[in-house]
Amino acid sequence: MKYIQDFQREKQEFERNLARFREDHPDLIQNAKKSDVPEKPKTPQQLWYNHEKKIYLKVRPDATTKEVKESLGKQWSQLSDKKRLKWIHKALEQRKEYEEIMRDYIQKHPELNISEEGITRSTLTKAERQLKDKFDGRPTKPPP
Q1: Partner of 44 for a Cys bridge, out of 33, 75, 87, 139, CB 3.0 to 4.6 A?
Q2: For residue 123, what pLDDT is reported?
Q3: What keywords is this UniProt entry annotated with (predicted)?
């Protein structure tokens, strides 16, 4: 207990000193620069997870991160093909927007030497591509 109390006391003293330093020397503090590189598009599962996580946390606000991940992971694996397809289409729309934004970004920043190959990489897994092709009416590939 003694060491914990000593730590708490020293931590509070450090935070007070840091606050005083920041007030006395605002010119020395560097603002964290936010990168202007566009954010990569999310996968269908990530989009679905972010959407469902908000709903799950409203129902169970006391749930831990681990519980949320496990529960939503099971739900995703049991999700019907039609519902998955909805998220696949959203992911593809995001990817198209990302590609346009990245092309503009590359033109504005030619010094970065970013190739166009990296921006066209798919966010879909093989199973998701096959599901999309199936619903689009494309025939399945014959075995080799």
Answers
A1: 87
A2: 78
A3: DNA-binding, Nucleus
